Amino acid sequence: MAIKIWQGKEGTDVSKGGNWSSGTIPANGDSIVVPSDASVNMAGDLDSLAAVTLMGFTVEDGCSINIGVREGNTLEYFEIELLHSAAYYNATLGGTGEIYLRADNYHEITIRMAGAAPGTGRSALNLIGTQAADLTDGRGSIHVQAATGAVALGNQRSTAQNMELNKLHMAAVATGVTVVVDASSEDYSDTSIPFEVEAGIVKIFCPMESLAQSGGTVYTEGDAANTASTITGGTFYGNSDGTIAALNASGSAIVSFDGNLRARTVSNCILAAGATLRDKLGLVTFTNGIDLIRCGLDDVTLDWGSHRTITPSTV
Hints:
Layout: E1 3-5, E2 31-34, E3 57-59, E4 69-71, E5 74-76, E6 78-81, E7 83-84, E8 87-88, E9 91-93, E10 99-104, E11 108-111, E12 125-128, E13 141-144, E14 150-153, E15 167-170, E16 178-181, E17 193-197, E18 201-204, E19 208-213, E20 217-220, E21 226-231, E22 235-238, E23 244-249, E24 254-256, E25 264-272, E26 276-278, E27 284-286, E28 290-293, E29 301-303
Parallel strand pairs: 1-2, 2-3, 3-9, 6-10, 9-11, 10-12, 11-13, 12-14, 13-15, 14-16, 15-17, 16-18, 17-19, 18-20, 19-21, 20-22, 21-23, 22-24, 23-25, 24-26, 25-27, 25-28, 26-29
Antiparallel strand pairs: 4-5, 7-8
């Protein structure tokens, strides 16, 4: 078991031993490190290590090389397996180049840094991968702590290239960091994902098991359904026509349904003091009305156009 460092002395091909420290390609039980001063891109036979079971994968902060290949609309991912001897291991990503990475059976992935979007509708850091069918001990979590960058989870061009994760957590993220979660993303059992957002921008195209938002900006897009959202800060744009089963907004939270002309449904809606709800065009059906908890109309902001009737009811 050794740490194998990418050097690229013989070119970009990851399947050549001479490109790695010690002169051999990584083997079962090794860890891979792509150093901050790496100067040669990683390409070549990108699936050559897919069957090698690693004990870690790190792209050091500030590394600027490309990992994987993009040719037009075709993406070729560097493939790694982080399940070794029945234990699951971590990946830490701090590169600012274009990265196309398939990480299977990881414990956690921490994104410390990512590059700026290389073009319209594109992301610098692109992740796909699958998970084993047992996600105990918090396995399968992705933590975004990036100071800069654009990140994509899942590949919208191919339903066979999804990203399986048990939780997405965004904290200590700079204002401009954007994470796009493709519709193909799901948890290991092919169901919806829980999200925790404290900062940054998240665009979600997949079904959500839950959303806990205390800051940042969240967009739901497409037909992404939403089981339960608790929003205490930041701005939530409900652009998806998927049903929100339970919406709770309080504190400085802003909930807006003004992003498009789609009809939407919120089954249960609760507002507490300080919250703002926007539905200027009356596109949302609130199945069970809107409940104000421990507050009155003067304590919330209802920006929902004109000609609305409010019918008080006893709780």
